[in-house]
Amino acid sequence: MLKTFIILFILSQLAFGGYQDNTEFDEKIKEIIRTRANGDVSFLRRFVNADGIPQGLGNRDGFNDSYCYNITERLLAHSKYADCTKLQSLNGSVVDLNLWTGFDIFKFSVNLLELKNVDVEMTYRTELTYLYFSAFRKCDNCLFNLTRNPALVGLRFWNLSHGNYLDTLSNEYRPKLLVRGNLRLKLSQGADRRKIEDLKKVCNKEMCEIQKNEECHFRHSIKNSDEYSNCRHVYGDMYFNSRFQESQPGTMDFRIDGCFVFNRTGIQFLRPIMRAFSNCSRSHLFFKNKYMCTDQLLELKDRWKSNNVNVTPADGMDVKCYQGECRGGFVSENVKDRYSGCEVIRGNVLVTEQSGNVSERVRDLSYAHVINGSLHLINNTSLKKLTLPFLKEIYSTQCPALVIQNMSNLTDIIFHSHIEFNCNSTGPKVLIRNSPKLYLYHQTLEQMRKAGAILDDFNSETDTYSENSTFYLVGLCVLIVIFVEIAWALRKNLLFPNWIYRIFPMSIKRKLKQKQPRKKKEE
């Protein structure tokens, strides 16, 4: 039993590049030992030569390989072809490795000697796979299409890349290789580039496209920047849709052999995207991304050549981020830095119960000077204070310009002391309803009333206090000054406690006595 596990371990290492977590492979090995070798573990040694290199089973006793020749099928899906040492097709066939188990793929790679008019294809395979074509020697019109496999960890052509056999093989009989977009395929490590050099040496010059180390490929749309943060090379297009809501995406320090597609994303700043080196044969697509900076989009078109960038705007609004402008919209706790540093906001700003806890997000609005749109705060219980000390104007095309409704925990709103509320249509410019804890400062309240504000269910005591508090404070200050002046003037005639004189020491000016001349003594 111990020998069985030792050999299983060795084979799993050879076949899958050091990974030991392939249960299906191990179970298949046990089945082979039980059914074909009557439990004889030494049977597995036939897969490995004296040097430990995987090798095919060769011509087994009683094996009829007639079905491996003169093939007319277009797709070779049956696993029986994994036992063939030679595959020959009359009209061209494709071996789709995705339809086979891990052990069948292992058998196929170590058994295979020659191909004629047969392509080998494996794409999007998620089961850990190591392709070790150890004995392969000849390829007559064949292509190895190994692309976009997230779990391909190794690829070798041992017989072709070692020894002198390759010197006698003309270019037309060498395998064509298309190896791109395999995320975990590492062909070089530091200065050691032997694996990738071996592949380039054996491949046919008509098609010899081999990836760099761990080249990324994205089959589905990208949700966040973490998905590509470790990529240095990308094969294929990158799709961003409405699920991508980051205002400033992560820096794209990679080369992409494909195009970018941005469809209704929440991206605002494009500077991180400009760092990518793109090789796009068609056009990059930007479709209705309403938050994107117009000036940065023009800069990107100049850098990537305008005829290579196709832009469909969401509307006719220009947002110049380099001048401190931002696009308004829905404020959400899940979207960071949407309004950070914005001085002019173009469009409506909306906070609702779907916004979540936006206490941190509204701080980004504190730099705003002008909102060219309306400001709506509706049904949000997390927001307790809104501080916009520089906001001087809210200008909306439709009234009301400011709406505060059902904000049960909102206690303070701070605007610029001379804020203006303007809108072009008829109706109230300011509407406040059902916000019982809200306190309005005197200047803000006066500006709202000048704008014809409607204050429904507003606390009248808070309202009165906010109007009269300034007068009370001024009067109290005047009385305190008068009292201090009177006390200071009468401090010489009044008897105060000693501690007051220690704080305010009092000096008494006395006239100096004139010195009298001394009288001369009488003699």
UniProtKB/TrEMBL annotation:
InterPro entries: Rcpt_L-dom (IPR000494), Rcpt_L-dom_sf (IPR036941), SPS2_domain (IPR053079). Gene3D superfamilies: Receptor L-domain. Residues 341-444 form the Receptor L-domain domain. The chain crosses the membrane at residues 471-490. Keywords: Membrane, Signal, Transmembrane, Transmembrane helix. The keyword Signal applies. The keyword Iron-sulfur does not apply. Residues 1-17 form the signal peptide. It comes from the Eukaryota. This is Receptor L-domain domain-containing protein. It comes from Caenorhabditis briggsae.
